[in-house]
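Extended Data, panel c. Modelled sequence:
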Amino acid sequence: MGVKSKIVIGNWKMNGSAELVESFTRTMLDNQAAYAGIRVVLCPPFTLLQAMADALEGGPILLGAQNVSEFEQGAHTGEISAPMLASMGTKMVIIGHSERRASRGENDRIIAAKVKQALSVGMLPVLCVGETAEEKARGDSGAVVWQQLSVVLHAIGSELFGQLIVAYEPIWAIGSGSTASTDDILTITTAIHAKLAQLGIQLPLLYGGSVNAGNAAQISSLPTISGLLVGGASLQAGQFLLLCSNTAKGA
């Protein structure tokens, strides 16, 4: 996937049902012209992955997962491995989402191990990074985000790191209804691109944080942004379809 391809990833979080998978995918697949030219990925909970895989089979929408274990196999109760996800047709996996960093104790070392596992089976990691409101207030946004990126970069090397997608999701904006300003987004994402360019790395950079159909076109049209990571707005098919359509228009 080229850096210039716009990407929209719908993260259902711990929501959804088999009925929603059926109705949601029908709406999306019946209206493919609305998002022609961009990549759309849907990430349901683990229990709905097979239903989603079946519903999306043969269509343009890719299947994604919300998490992956840092272990390949073994006595790890409740964990889902990268080979398991890949066997179901999962093409992408969200890693390091701020909700997991905050509530599940995921640190940069664990996240780096998860990235390695995803890459080992050919899945594309979507590495999430972002700062808290307190870190932003101290003027530490850039340093915090680069530290999160650096741990993974050092763990896997620049060649593999260039295969990733990075999603900048300011923690203070997620689920709050308060989207980062375009100036804030540009400042951080420009700095990320510049630091990576010094290492010869170019990759897609997404934005996540209270994204909706109303702000999708403006954010996705920023020169440093290759797409969007969408949470709550990905649960209603009509709104998500409009969001994807607006992103395509902003491409």
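The beta strands are 7-11, 39-43, 62-65, 92-95, 124-129, 165-168, 205-208, 227-230. This feature is highlighted in the accompanying rendering.
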